[in-house]
Specification:
Layout: H1 2-23, H2 29-38, H3 43-150, H4 154-168, H5 176-240, H6 252-270, H7 276-279, H8 283-294, H9 298-317, H10 327-350, H11 357-379, H12 385-404, H13 410-441, E1 447-449, H14 452-461, H15 467-471, E2 476-478, H16 483-502, H17 509-537, H18 543-558, H19 560-570, H20 585-613, H21 630-645, H22 651-673, H23 683-701, H24 718-729, H25 732-738, H26 751-771, H27 779-806
Antiparallel strand pairs: 1-2
């Protein structure tokens, strides 16, 4: 039962497995079969039995199916056999028809092949045309590039290259000719860079050679503009200015002429105005700049341009060694510099970034320092004031020209103030020669006037006013000599010359006025004063000339106020607003006058010494001649004539000269008596000497120069008079008794002087006694006198010793 139950349980399982095998894909039947072996041990056998049973069932079904369809199969075979005959006939017909079709289609095939071949050719032609249409623009652009290169249109060529690279080459990049073109473009770019750089070098060399012409044109235009402006300003000053002193040069007519000339020059040059573009072709710079910009190498071009221009700047700023010798040397130097910076200014304004304002400012500051150093060095060699003035005008024009282009030039005007000092020095040296020539040509005598015309000529040259002289009838004389109006005129010429330098310095009228006054003060206090002092000290200048020099300096001193008015007028400064330096003419001419007075005193004393040296006394004479010595009378006559000339001098000068002469004469006579080489003097010689002193006293009492009070002039001989009276009267007892008393008769006689002269007289007496010893009756008197002299000598020596001990 159990086995039966077990067998019943496996049958459905085997059926399920068989269903799976029948319904499952053959590749997946493996796991199903494996389940058969995984079951109970006898399951395999049972499954095989079940499988055989299933196969038998299927065979039975197939047999039933075949039996059902067998008659239909037989009928179908019979019909096929019948169709076979018809099929063979049909085959023959089809074969025949096929053969006929093949024979007929051979021509069609040939024609079809021709058509296909033509279609292929047509397609190829179309493709070629399309490709050629694509390549032709490239070839045309490349041809255009070649033409541009040949025509030196390099900027356009670079643009064409850009179009080729960006637009055309990408379309035909697969072709070999395109690769060749692409490989050739860098070489063309390098060629363009080299050619444009060569053009730039030629341009730089050209502007280096023509910079002086550029600068000359720029400076000429600046000069024309300045001339026109100055003429207008002068016309305005003439219309609104003040009247100028009658001695001064009135510039109204000259200003009108200058204005007219300025207008004429402006009209003539209006059509001739050239710009820097007219003189220089800047296209190489623009072309090169554009080329390098397109090539993306603009920085290289800028650096090269600036480097080369800096080198040129150094060359331009290097002056010639002999530049200071002529004004043309300075002009060439300035025109080259102006030309250089005019070009740089043009490049600055017409290009973007090639040069910058910072670069030009740096270059100008470097150049300005060099220019100032060069001008300072070379101008120091200039000794001609005209050359220095022309240099100043060139510097002003140079500065005004560059200032018009925006370059700062204040340092140049500061330099002009330094050069102005040098200009004044050269003027002072020149005028020193002028003054020396005037003094050498002067005759040092009052200017004679014979008629009204001559009088007006002198008045027009020198501001002299003297009502008394005007009232005198012709002929008459001006008190000063011819040198006075000449010096006055030359001082004014110096002021004009100094004014020429001060003009165009962009300074106010007050500053110019102050500069003129300072320059004039230097002329008066240094140059003219030095020339006067040298003139006064010259050996050939006599007393008469010295007197005239004093008179001349007096009138020149009085004319200084007219010079101040003259300076005020030419600078258009109102008298009420002037707070500037005064002229030092007062002190200058006063010092010269004092020097001349001192020289008068010295020369007068020298002349007195010359006369005194002519004295030829016989110091051993026994009796006087009874009249004064000849040399002394000549000296007195000379003094009388000289003091008559002194009447034109100020009173104190004449009195001082007269007193000095008398004192010097007295001293000289005293020294003659006390000369150590003179060993003995006779009483006859003393008496003769006394006669000469009497003549001197008579001269002093005759008042040779008015203004002395009482016997003031005679006091110059008081020492001699008291000494001679002591010996003539032989009043030794009174002298010795009253010595030291304020009321002493011989108060001015020094014991040492008296002793010296007494010893000489004593020796003379001894010598006379020896010669006259044959006369016995005189021996006793001589012995008594000698004893008296010895006694007096002893007393005098005691006085002298007492004085020395007291001292």
């Amino acid at each position: 039962m159990a086995e039966n139950g077990e067998g019943l349980g496996t049958v459905p399982e085997h059926e399920r497995i068989l269903q799976e095998i029948e319904s499952t894909d053959t590749a997946c039947v493996g796991p199903t079969l494996r389940s058969v072996y995984d079951d109970q041990p006898n399951a395999h056998k049972k499954f095989m039995e079940k499988l055989d049973a299933c196969i038998r069932n299927h065979d039975k079904e197939i047999e039933k199916m075949c039996n059902f369809h067998h008659q239909g199969f037989v009928d179908a075979i019979t019909e096929l056999l019948k169709v076979r005959t018809d099929a063979e006939k049909l085959k023959v017909q089809v074969t025949d028809t096929n053969r006929k079709f093949q024979d007929a289609g051979k021509e069609v095939i040939v024609q079809t092949e021709d058509i296909i071949r033509c279609r292929i050719q047509q397609r190829n032609i179309t493709t070629v045309v399309e490709k050629l249409q694509l390549c032709l623009p490239v070839l045309e652009m490349y041809s255009k590039l070649k033409e541009q290169m040949s025509a030196k249109r390099y900027y356009s060529a670079l643009k064409t290259m850009e179009q080729l690279e960006n637009v055309y080459f990408p379309r035909v990049s697969q072709y070999r000719f395109c690769q060749l073109m692409i490989e050739n473009l860098p070489k063309l770019r390098e060629d363009i860079k080299e050619i444009s750089m060569s053009d730039l070098k030629d341009f730089l060399e050209s502007i280096r050679k023509h910079s002086d012409k550029i600068g000359e044109t720029a400076m000429k235009q600046a000069q024309q503009q300045k001339t026109f402006s100055v003429a207008l300003q002068k016309q305005n000053r003439v219309q609104f200015g003040k009247n100028i002193h009658f001695n001064d040069r009135i510039p109204e007519e000259r200003n009108e002429v200058e204005l007219k000339r300025a207008f004429e020059e402006e009209d003539e040059n209006e059509e001739e105005v050239l710009t820097v573009q007219d003189l220089v072709d800047f296209s190489p710079v623009y072309r090169c700049l554009h080329i390098y910009s397109v090539l993306g190498d603009e920085e290289t071009f800028e650096n090269y341009y600036r480097k080369q221009r800096k080198k040129q700047a150094r060359l331009v700023l290097q002056p010639q060694s002999n530049m200071h010798e002529t004004v043309d040397g300075y002009r060439r130097y300035f025109t080259q510099i102006v030309g250089f910076f005019v070009v740089e200014d043009h490049i600055l304004h017409v290009t973007q970034g090639l040069v910058t304002r910072a670069y030009t400012d740096e270059l100008w500051n470097m150049a300005l320092s060099k220019i100032i150093a060069v001008l300072r060095a070379h101008s120091s060699y200039c000794t001609d004031p005209d050359l220095v003035l022309e240099l100043k005008n060139l510097i002003v024009l140079f500065a005004d020209t560059l200032q018009g282009y925006g370059f700062p030039v204040n340092r140049l005007f500061d330099l002009l103030f330094e050069i102005r000092e040098q200009y004044n020095e050269t003027l002072l040296k020149k005028w020193a020669g002028v003054f020396r020539d005037i003094f050498e040509e002067d005759n040092y005598s009052p200017i004679p006037i014979v008629n009204e015309e001559e009088y007006k000529v002198v008045i027009s040259k020198f501001p002299f006013q003297d009502p008394d002289l005007e009232k005198q009838s012709f002929p008459k004389k001006f008190p000063m000599s011819q040198s006075v109006p000449h010096i006055y005129i030359q001082v004014k010429e110096f002021i004009y010359a100094s004014l020429k330098f001060s003009e165009s310095l962009h300074r106010s009228s007050t500053e110019i006025d102050d500069m003129l006054r300072k320059s004039t003060n230097l002329l008066l206090t240094r140059t003219l004063s030095s020339c006067l002092l040298n003139l006064i000290r010259k050996p050939h200048i006599g007393l008469t000339e010295l007197v005239q020099i004093i008179i001349n300096t007096t009138h020149l001193e009085q004319a200084c106020r007219y010079l101040e008015d003259f300076i005020t007028n030419i600078t258009n400064i109102s008298q009420e607003t002037v707070h500037t330096t005064r002229l030092y003419g007062l002190s200058t001419f006063k010092d010269a006058r004092h020097a001349a007075e001192g020289e008068i005193y010295t020369k007068l004393n020298q002349k007195i010494d010359e006369f005194v040296q002519l004295a030829d006394y016989d110091w051993t004479m026994s009796e006087p001649d009874g009249r004064a010595s000849g040399y002394l009378m000549d000296l007195i006559n000379f003094l009388r004539s000289i003091f008559q000339v002194f009447t034109h001098l100020p009173g104190k000068v004449a009195q001082t000269a007269c007193m000095s002469a008398c004192q010097h004469l007295s001293t000289s006579l005293m020294q003659m008596l006390l000369d150590s080489e003179l060993k003995q003097i006779s009483m006859g010689a003393v008496q003769q000497f006394n006669l000469d002193v009497i003549q001197c006293e008579l001269f002093a009492s005759s008042e040779p120069v008015p203004g002395f009070q009482g016997d003031t002039l005679q006091l110059a001989f008081i020492d001699l008079r008291q000494l001679l009276d002591l010996f003539m009267v032989w009043d030794w007892s009174t002298y010795l008794a009253d010595y030291g008393q304020p009321a002493s008769k011989y108060l001015r006689v020094n014991p040492n002087t008296a002793l010296t002269l007494l010893e000489k007289v004593h020796r003379g007496m001894k010598d006379t006694s020896k010669k006259n010893n044959i006369f016995a009756q005189f021996r006793k008197n001589d012995r008594d006198k000698q004893k008296l002299i010895e006694t007096v000598v002893k007393q005098l020596r005691s006085l002298v010793n007492g004085m020395s001990q007291h001292t």
